[in-house]
Amino acid sequence: MSHLSKRTRIANIDVSAYRVPLKKPWVSAAHAITHHEHILVEIELENGVKGVGWTSTMGNAGLAVTALAKSYLAPMLIGRSVYEHEILWNNLWRRSHQPGPSGIASLAVAAFDLCLWDLRGKLAGMPVRHLIGGESDKIEIYASAVNLHLSEKALVEQTREFLDAGNRKFKIKVGRPNIDEDLSRIAAVRDVIGDLPMMLDANQRFKPGEALQRINAYARFNPVWMEEPMASDDAGSHARLAAVSPVPIALGEEVSTRFEFWNYVSAAAVHYLQPNVLKVGGISEWLKLAHLGNCANLFIAPHGALEASVIVAPAIPGCFSVENIDGGSFVDQGIAFETMQIKDGEVTLPTIPGLGVEFDMATLASYRVDFDIEVPLADPSKYYDND
Known about the structure:
The protein is α/β, with parallel strands linked by helices. It contains 13 helices and 13 strands.
């Protein structure tokens, strides 16, 4: 082992979970979300340098992720060099593969991967985006919201607020039971934003025939994409849909492994590839998936996870704007200090070494959870406002 690796061996690891309430509920065609659960991994090297990584769920299964990370994965890293990141990633993923290689497993691996990148950035004295090939200090974002429950009037007001804040791209939810409601809502948003780009997201709401029917109806509003029209497990139906859809298909939010992404890419089942940094196992794997998409000449559009997506997006030439979900950032949730500035549809990125996120640990402490809590399931219907 080299002198360098001896100085940068992992000495201590701490894993903790926090259940943070959203200021306003998120309601889509699939879920009602009232909390986010954040799992933090803190690693200290033998030379005293400390790093922090994270992963998040939308209020579901965070404790399962925490248990996997703390009891099974963390012990594997003690004594290893922070520079062995590819070997360590594969070891963590293999340990997680037998009970299930995606979902909870990928989320757990992501927290360690982000932490290891944070450490390498701090050791190098530069932001992680520079280490992975991204030089830009400012990138474009698009305004997004989980807003299917809002009345049309409230949706229009929200969209106008996004426009007035300087945003120039917008995404809204679709999937109301009555297609006419969807069409009226889309038309109302189009009236507000004019010819500016608009994306639609159904959160896997439709069956194949219904998906095509809806998309054909939505097409006259010229959406940039139709996101997750059907169950994300069904690559075959997406391939058949993509071949005839008048609107490009986007997905990747609930696809976790390179093999699942390959099924979509090889079947020509997607046009905008949307890997989520946290759900695919971290920065290391996200970059591989972005290059996979590039090999197929697809658009790469990071999904959610704002603080992680702004790190990887600058490293991919032609990457689509980063999603900024209303109320979803760490600053919006009140659990991190403002290290990047969002203004006029752009984010100015932090220049501090590492990942660039500084958590407010004092505030987070009040949201810390252990394994003896009961988490109720929220009913989406109670949040709908049709006035």
